[in-house]
Amino acid sequence: MPKLTQILLDCDNTLVLSEELAFEACADIANEILAKRHITDRYTGEQLIQDFVGQNFRGMMISLQAKYKFEMPQEEFEHYVKEEENQVIAKLQAKAQPCIGVNEELEKIHREGKYRMAVVSSSALRRVQASIKKVGQDKFFDPTHVFSAASSLPKPTSKPDPAIYLFAMDKLGVKAEECVAVEDSKSGALSAIRAGIPVIAYVGSYHGDQKRAEMAKQLSDLGAKVVMKDWTEFQSCLAQIETA
């Protein structure tokens, strides 16, 4: 097996505790869209997380249209995409925190220089950049090694589509077997697995032992190679993949 040289990291709830903040803003906008169409259902951020975790806003709005059987004109769609991005970024800049223990691990990897690191996210590039900057992680990543399924691709998409991982590997000049991905959601793990990349499933951002155990099982069943409950386990998870 070729040597692992590249660590590809999801952003939301893998590097930065951003999902709850982002989904609060998403829920406000989703409810405005539904109200405009006289649809009486309303979402909380938590309900959106349950229904759409791992998808970016574009993906969510496509799913929402399918669920409620309406079509949004492209102009309106793009307006809400931009509006959501602005609102989420404002929340992240005010309140975002790093995932527990991740900054110490990034520091270690960065210092040792054995692996290169890149961010591979579904979220809009501005949002990813704002997130990692707020929590002091931007110094660990070359700005050209931060990839977004919503912004970096010729045609925007969302995980579980593997397009963003394929694009990132192409830009980084690496093959799937030289990489490992760290993902916390089903759609994220599937995106990497479909691109042929071994996955470390990170479940440390889920609340409660039961939810963490449930997600560990789900992500393992999808094909994640190893489960990481805490960032302090990263080196041993990496070693398991390297010796597999």
TrEMBL record:
- InterPro entries (UniProt xref): CbbY-like (IPR044999), HAD-like_sf (IPR036412), HAD-SF_hydro_IA (IPR006439), HAD_2 (IPR041492), HAD_sf (IPR023214), PGP-like_dom2 (IPR023198)
Any matching Pfam family: HAD_2
Q: Superkingdom of the source? A: Eukaryota
Please name the NCBIfam families in this protein's record: HAD-SF-IA-v3
Q: Report what the protein is called.
A: HAD superfamily hydrolase
